[in-house]
Amino acid sequence: RIALQAEIAALDRRPGEIAAEREHLADTVSGSTRRRDQAGDALAIGETRLKEAEASRRAAETALGAAREERVRAESLRDRAQEHRGEVEARIAERFDCPPAEVLDAATVGLEPGAAREEPPALDELEARLERLLRERDNMGPVNLVAENEAAEIEARYDGLAHERGDLTAAIARLRQGIAALNREGRERMLAAFTQINEHFGKLFERLFGGGRAYLALERPRTEEGEAAETDDTVDPLEAGLEIMASPPGKKLQNISLLSGGEQAMTALALIFAAFLTNPAPICVLDEVDAPMDDANVDRFCALVAEIADTTETRFLIVTHHRLTMARMDRLYGVTMAEQGVSQLVSVDLQQAEELRKTA
User: Fold this and answer.
1) Residue 312 region, left (φ>0) first, then alpha (ψ -120 to 50), else beta?
2) How does pLDDT run across 218-247, given as a tens digit for each residue?
3) 252: CB partners within 8 A, 6+ apart
4) Stretch 265-271: mean pLDDT, rounded?
5) C-beta of residue 288 within 8 angstroms of C-beta of residue 319
6) CB-based contact 208:270 (threshold 8 Å)
7) Number of separate helices (H) and strands (E) present in the chain
8) Percentage of residues in the chain with pLDDT exceeding 90?
9) pLDDT per position as a tens digit, 24-52
10) pTM of the entire structure?
């Protein structure tokens, strides 16, 4: 029992001892950890210093190599400078017959005693000036004994050329005045003809289409990129293009390129006939102009042709396959092949045929 009580007392003290040992071990671990961290920091600092030392060593080696190269280059420049100096000394001795130290004294020839000597120019400038003077001397060549006579001849030729130049300048001025007058007259006549054609064109368009509206407009000249040139509001008729604007009945006003094939043909005929009414010609040849038209438009076209032929005495020669057009003509010409390979021209006078039919 006493032993058990002693053991129980010992066991009761054991937790305190274990706690004390735990605290001691915790202090030991904390100290070890702190020493380990300090050692790690010291190791990192040492590695950083080692890297910096390596970088410094490499930089020093690079600087050493550059210094060696610079030294070799300087020695080479020194050797070339010594060679050049020897050549200069030889040239001085050859040209001036004196040592290099006496060249500046020789250059002060003509100065008063005690006068200040100016600083000589740079060597490159002196060499360039010497070469220029030598070249000018060589270009002068030998002395020309007939230079005065040649100068008189050249002066006479110059006076003649100056007189001719004055004549040419006056002729150019007269030509420019003539061109300006022609351009002015051409613009006036062009605008007058354009006004008449535009008026006839509008009336003929309304007649051919049975209504609508059309007019001609002067278009500004185009640049190389296809854009309209930026000029003032006035358009030069000698350089401007022509734009045809048409509005058939029931359609909006638009460019002729946006119309149908038949409408384009009718509009083009109106423009052609407008030109004929402005300046009538004895003969007008029309080739298949009625091909894209319907019967109603062909009838209007034939009526307009007959009216223009009566009023302007213009004779129309029309190439066509349309029956209505052929029926409205005065005379028909055709080619037939009665025999194989043999063509024969056939002509029919419709007016005479109509009279024969009435008398029959």
Assistant:
1) alpha
2) 887 665 555 555 444 567 777 888 888 888
3) none
4) 87
5) yes
6) yes
7) 8, 7
8) 17
9) 888 888 888 888 888 888 898 989 999 99
10) 0.47
Q: How far apart are CA 23 and CA 33, in angstroms?
A: 15
> Which of 55-64, 97-106, 324-333 is least confident?
97-106
Cα–Cα–Cα angle for 46, 51, 54, nearest 5°?
125
pLDDT(105) > 90: no
Give yes or no for a contact between 201 and 216, defined as CB atoms under 8 angstroms apart. Answer: yes
Contact 333, 301 (CB under 8 A): no
- Confidence class of residue 112 from pLDDT cuts 50, 70 and 90? low
pLDDT for 264: 87
The 8-class DSSP code of residue 337 comes to: E
> What is the rounded CA–CA span in Å between residue 24 and residue 222?
103
Q: Compute how many other C-beta atoms are within 10 angstroms of the C-beta atom of residue 196.
A: 15
Give 248: exposed, middle or buried? Use CB within 10 Å, 0-12, 13-18, 19+: buried
In the chain, the N- to C-terminal Cα span, in Å, equals 176
Instruction: Copy the structure tokens of residue 95.
Output: 């040209």
Rounded-to-integer distance, Cα 19 and Cα 135, Å: 112
Residue 160 Cα distances to 120, 149, 165, 179, angstroms: 50, 17, 9, 28
Predicted local confidence at residue 304, as pLDDT: 85
Q: Cα–Cα distances in Å, from 166 out to 171, 172, 177?
A: 9, 10, 17
Q: Which residues of 64-79 are buried (b: 16+ CB within 10 A; e: fewer)?
A: eeeeeeeeeeeeeeee
Identify the helix (H) or strand (E) that includes residue 102. Answer: none
Cα dihedral value 313, 315, 320, 323, nearest 10: 50
